[in-house]
Amino acid sequence: MKTRVSIGLLALVAVGLSAAAPAWSPDAGRLEWQHRGVGLDRAIVDVAGGGEGWRTRVVAVRIDPAQFHFRLRGRLRGVEPAWSVDRAPEAAALAFNVGQFNGITPWGWVVMEGEEIRPPGRGPLSVAIAWDKNGSVQWLSPEEIDRQRNSSAIVQAFQSYPMLIDARGDIPRQIREPGLGVDVEHRDARLAFGALGDGKLVVAITRFNGLGPISPALPLGLNLSEMAGVMRGLGCVRAVSLDGGVSAQLMTKENGLRRFWHGWRSVPLGLVAEPMQPAN
Q1: How is the chain split into domains, by residue range?
Q2: What is the pTM of this model?
Q3: What is the pLDDT of residues 242-274, one digit of tens each?
Q4: Rg, the chain, Cα only
Q5: If DSSP states are collapsed to H, E and C, what string results for 54-89?
Q6: Angle at the Cα of 189 (from 25 to 60), degrees rounded to 5?
Q7: Three-state secondary structure call for residue 228
Q8: CA distance 103 to 259
Q9: CB of 117 closer than 8 Å to CB of 129
């Protein structure tokens, strides 16, 4: 989906960005999960980052993996990525883009319906999210991926980077401190995937909120460290960044109604969650 932003609107945004930004912190006291369907809750919280992230809205979805089938979905149209949340099946309760991309090709390990589509990528901050035949979710390092490739246990998997919260529950130094191989200053719209201590999963997308209710979906917002703090504030003990910016998109089906947070472009790969039991 393409969006045109007028020069006047950009000027108004620039005025807002020139204001002094408060120190970033999640407003944890206002975080309230609201039930939106079987196994699905949603929360909206406003946070203040530095620079252009001075007013950022976070939309977070909490989902019980025991209640859903997860499936990767990909689509190309000729040589162009062509998947978006608009293509999610009607039964889906959740859909969002996953992984990172090189042109039209997903980066790293991709397994769909038990078939390896792409080999693993390599990187110290990468992690794979995988579902086995029993529906259990696994977080796999590159070394652990190698051990799983020779088995037939994994039926769906994607790989992404960088980790926001590692296996120890820490925010990696590489996304907090400059000079360690990651652009820690870059700000963007963000999309992240995480896990809570009880096994539930969290998807969070950010939107620039500098103009309040009329704010367009501009690719402005938090840096990686701030997004890691958001995921920790949501209760996550593991988290990884997904492709954000103009790619970030999310669909939820809440009490029978579909809600969309569109991106500006289609992508090659998405993940959908469909209920184990059909809705009444």
Answers
A1: 7-275
A2: 0.88
A3: 999 999 999 999 999 999 999 999 999 999 999
A4: 18
A5: CCEEEEEEEECHHHEEEEEEECEECCEECECHHHCC
A6: 60
A7: helix
A8: 28
A9: no
- Average pLDDT value for residue range 203-207: 97
- DSSP output for 103-153: TTEE-S-EEETTEEEEPPP--TT-EEEEEETT--EEEE-HHHHHHHHTSS-
Single-letter amino acid, residue 8? G
- Phi then psi for residue 8, to 5 deg, are -60, -40
Residue carrying structure tokens 């978006």:
84
Q: How many CA atoms does the CB half-sphere of 81 hold within 13 Å?
A: 23
User: Reduced to 3 states, what is the DSSP secondary structure of residue 27?
Assistant: coil
Please tell me the distance from the alpha carbon of residue 85 to that of residue 248, in angstroms, as a whole number. 10
Element (H, E) at 252: strand 250-254
In angstroms, the CA 209 to CA 141 distance is 35
Percent of the chain with pLDDT over 90: 75
